Each structure stands twice: as structure tokens, then as C-alpha cells.
Amino acid sequence: MTIEEILGGESKNLEYKGERPAKSKSYMKSVVAFSNGVGGKIVFGIEDKTLKVLGVPDNILFSEMDAIANVISDQCEPMIVPDIYMQTIEDKTVIVVDIVEGAQKPYYIKSEGIDAGTYIRVAGTTRPADEYMIQELRLEGSRRSYDEMPCIGLEITEDDIADLCKRMKEEAVYNTLNEEEKKAIRDVTVEQLLSWRVIGERNGKYYPNNAYAILTGDYRVPNTIQFGVFKGSTKAIFVDRKEYTGPAWELVEEAFQYVLRNIRMGATFKGVYRQDVYEIPPFAIRELIVNAVVHRSYVDRGNIQIAVYDDRLEILSPGKLPKTQTFAGMKKGRSKIRNEALAKAFSYMKLMEKWGSGIPRVVREVCDEGLAIPVFEGGEVDLVVNIYRKDNIANTAKTADQSGGDGGSGVKTGGELSEEETKIITYLAVRPTATQKEISSDTNIPLRTVQRILPRLQEKAVLVRVGNRRSGKWKLIE
């Protein structure tokens, strides 16, 4: 771990302790939370609010390391085995406790029991896991997929199965533009549904899994999308609201058409032909809706929420990021499927791109339209994606290129901005609280380059840092 990373401020996977607390529970919560998440580090010997390096005295260094290891071993269930090592910073020695993501989730504090002693990380803080999150962690720990489990209370007949097979093929044909490809689409069979684990078989009788309930819109599994159009950039003033419930692929179409009806549409001409152009690329809208339906947590009883504000389109999907997925991994095309049976069915119906290719294409198409990079937030409890609308993005790059001379209102930049500088400014216009790592990940600019550019932009009087290193934000000077 580099010194820059250690001193970069607390985050969802980094925590500081000035010294080892007398009550071990105060940091055991974070230990189990890191194990239940994607891992993390606790650094002993750094003050959390000031980032002052206190160090651990040499005469107790090894006994402190042993004490930390023993407490983790004794108080956590299942057993957690951290990597504990020393690191020198500013001529002082700190202790780094490195905890990897656990494979036997949920992890909890023995003395509190699994219901009260299970913790997770949310927005850089440690908090108790609620009932649904514990169930989600159990599924991860057992390597099971919720949609492949039997749907309790739902019974089906062979006619029901035949009807689903027929409707799925009709949807696949509808979503295929090429006539030759349409002819090549095969019928969905009972054997196919069994292999996808949409249904199961026991003693010669078929039973529905949760994927079947999701695909058919049965009420036993959450299958509602809530829509809202709001005046301004908050939920304070409703303009319109609706809810749709039904089969999963119908929800996708209803949601897609609702968004298109509530965003602006212009036109361009190719020769003598007029072509309608939406302010947000339709592919990006549809792909994000499909992702919300396929990858949401169906253990969580919440609903997918789609909101159109004056400045952005926001899509909220219940549940934390699946398995070991990260925002950076998503943007690079790494696919982690939470609901595998549902994903296979959607892939057959031509509702999904090749696994892993959708999000990179969303980012590319949105940026090609001159919009800001989509902002992915949350991931610990819910996943929220924001696409900022064209007429409402802070036109920062354009402003920053103005000299500010002759009484003008532009920024005194001290020279032309590079492409990377402009990219960072445009990003920070819509996400001013982003960390250096997040800027690097979302803009695909190397971290070291970001670390060089930010001070340079401050020298050019384009950016200013407001607040402290941990909880501050970037402000654009206009």
C-alpha cells in the first residue's frame, strides 16, 4: 500500500485509528463489514479527522499486532485471517490490517449473534446489516442465485410453461431486426427452461423458480417500477408519477417508452430524410433499464425507481453491487451476474448485449453525444446511475477556455486547457465530491495524471478545494 493511498482519506475500504481502542468491538464492526464487502484496510497510528501520523511506539509494536490478530480470531465468525504488517510514514511506524473479501458470508461478531452482529460498509461508514442484506450475504456465501431458488406458494401447469415459452420466442423475434436472424431463432422448450433454471423438476413434476415469477410478473417476487417526473433537481415537486407491474420484459419496454416521452427530442437530416434524435441516446436508456431489472436484488422488497429531473435522468436499482463487481470493473466490461437464470432468458430474448459489453457502450454513446460521463453512485445498498441532460450540464469546459480579459465573465485560466484537464473539469461539474481515485476510474485518466492535473487547475484558478481533505468538494470558479 503506497503512502499516497494510506493518506488519501477514509473511504468505503479504508479506516483510521489513532491507537487501538480499549473496546475491541469498535473496530471489530469494521473488520466484519470489510469481510462482508469487497475487503478493506484499517490503519492504526493515524488520526482519522486530521490525518496526523501518530505512529505506534516501537516498544509495543509487536504486542499490538499480536493483540489485533488474536481479537479478530476470537471475536469473528466465520474465522477471518487478516494480513497484518508495518509501514513507515514520516519516520513513524503504523500498523496496517488488510482484510480481504470473505468467501463464507455473512461474517458477524460472535457475542452479538448473526442477526445483530452482522455489519456492512455504506458510504465510508460501518452500519448494521438489515434482514434483507443478511439474506443477500447468505446467498453470496452459499454461491446461490435467488432467481434459481423455488418460488414458494406458486404452482404452474404444463400449459403455463408452454405459454411462457411462446411469449419468450415472440419477444425474441420482436427484438431481432434482421429477417435471417429471426428465422434462426429456436423455440424455447421445457428442457431449455430447466437448463436455465427458470423452472425445476421434482418427482416428475415441474415447479417454478423465482426467475419464472419475475418473467411472468407474479406478485410473490418484487416486479414494480416506479416512475416520476420532477420540477427542478430534487423530488420536492412532482410533475407526473406512475407505477408499472408485469412480466419483466414488458417492464423494460414500459420504462423505456416512459423515459422517451419525458425527455426532449430534436431532429437531424441525412440528405432529404429527417431523423429524430433524443437528447440522451436511446440505447443507453434501454441498457440501463435492462441492467436494473436483471441485476437488481430481488431479496430486497424495494422497487426500481426511474426519475426524470430538469438536469438529469436517474435510475435506482435496489441492492448492492453483485458479488465482486465494482464500478471500475463495470466500465471495463467485467460482468458479474446476480440473477443468472434471468440473464440467460433476457439474452435469448435479445434484450441484453453480449455480457459485459453494455456499460462500456453506454458510457461511450453518452460521451459521444457531448454529455457528461454517467455517474454511478452507491453500490453498498442501492445502485444509482445519473445521466445529465445536455442543456443542463455546466458548460465548464467552454467557460474555462475563455481568458476572462476585457471585462469578460470567463475564468482566468492562464492558458489553454488540455483535453485531460477539460475532461476532469466537465466531470467535476456534475460530481464535485469525487475522490482522485473516482475521477481516475470514471474518466480513464491514470491516477498519477489526475494527481498532477488537480493542483495545476488550482494554480490556473479554475478549481478550488472547499472543506477538508476527507469531506470537502471541488468548486469550479466561474
Structure, explained:
With 478 residues, the protein is an alpha+beta fold. The chain folds into 4 domains: 140 residues, Schlafen, AAA domain (Methyltransferase, Cobalt-precorrin-4 Transmethylase, Domain 2); 70 residues, no CATH class; 169 residues, 2-Layer Sandwich (Heat Shock Protein 90); 81 residues, Arc Repressor Mutant, subunit A, CATH 1.10.10. The strands form 7 sheets. The chain has a 6-stranded mixed β-sheet with strand order 12-11-15-16-18-17, covered by helices on one side. α10 runs antiparallel to α11 and α11 runs antiparallel to α14. The protein is globular.
Query: Reading side by side through the largest sheet, how are the strands ordered?
Result: 12-11-15-16-18-17
CATH topology of the largest domain: Heat Shock Protein 90
Mean pLDDT figure: 85
Kindly, what is the distance between the CA atoms of the first and last residues, rounded to a whole number of angstroms?
37 Å
Indicate the percent of residues in helices.
25-40%
Number of helices: 18
Morphology? globular
